[in-house]
């Protein structure tokens, strides 16, 4: 099913999303990769304030390239998500509601998704230039020294993603493989 959602991403919005749904996201999302995630969780463990409030927010695992003239952002394809797996549960435990990346997630992340009523979206790897067209505004908000891995606040319109893991723990990668194998047996 195709859905349209506007951030912030509340628990109410997340509960209606199911693994396999295609979603167009409009609103504010943040970018961060492993170096920024490491800094955020270090601040958490020291009980210090984070540079962004993650409650009901979406973090896109991306390190965009420099923008071309007339663009807000350069190519913005997803980063492999497992690189954030050691950090993501801590952020979900303080309210992070959505993550966008590519690839499978660990059991710890799956458990945190269920526990916190969160969602993991997949973006299409190799479609970074297309995804960048959804970015209407980009603002550097933290960790400028990280370059492409700095935290940016993006305003997106109709950013195309797919629900990979929903708030109940249903995993599209597992469902898709099971359905495919069943279809082979049906022939």
Automatic annotation (TrEMBL):
GO molecular function terms noted in the UniProt entry: hydro-lyase activity
Keywords, ordered alphabetically: Lyase
UniProt keyword annotation of Membrane present: no
Keyword Lyase: yes
Fe-S hydro-lyase tartrate dehydratase beta-type catalytic domain mapped to chain residues: 6-174
InterPro entries according to UniProt: Fe-S_hydro-lyase_TtdB-typ_cat (IPR004647), Fe-S_hydroAse_TtdB_cat_sf (IPR036660)
Gene3D superfamilies to which the protein is assigned, alphabetical: Fe-S hydro-lyase, tartrate dehydratase beta-type, catalytic domain (3.20.130.10)
Alphabetical list of NCBIfam families matching this protein: PRK06842.1, ttdB_fumA_fumB
Family indicated by similarity: Belongs to the class-I fumarase family.
Annotated protein name in UniProt: Hydro-lyase, Fe-S type, tartrate/fumarate subfamily, beta region
Designated gene of the protein: fumA'
């Amino acid at each position: 099913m195709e859905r349209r959602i506007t951030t912030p991403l509340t628990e109410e919005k997340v509960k209606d999303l199911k693994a396999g749904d295609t979603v167009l996201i409009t609103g504010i999302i943040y970018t961060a990769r492993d170096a920024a995630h490491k800094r955020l969780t270090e601040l958490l463990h020291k009980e210090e304030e984070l540079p962004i409030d993650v409650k009901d927010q979406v973090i896109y695992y991306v390190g965009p390239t420099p923008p071309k003239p007339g663009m807000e952002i350069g190519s913005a394809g997803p980063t492999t998500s497992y690189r954030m797996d050691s950090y993501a549960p801590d952020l979900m435990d303080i309210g992070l509601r959505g993550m966008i990346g590519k690839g499978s997630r660990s059991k710890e992340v799956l458990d945190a998704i269920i526990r916190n009523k969160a969602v993991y979206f997949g973006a299409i790897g190799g479609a970074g230039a297309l995804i960048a067209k959804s970015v209407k505004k980009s603002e550097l908000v933290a960790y400028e020294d990280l370059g492409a891995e700095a935290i940016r606040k993006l305003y997106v319109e109709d950013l195309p993603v797919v629900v990979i893991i929903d708030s109940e723990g249903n995993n599209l990668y597992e469902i898709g493989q099971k359905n495919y194998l069943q279809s082979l047996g049906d022939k």
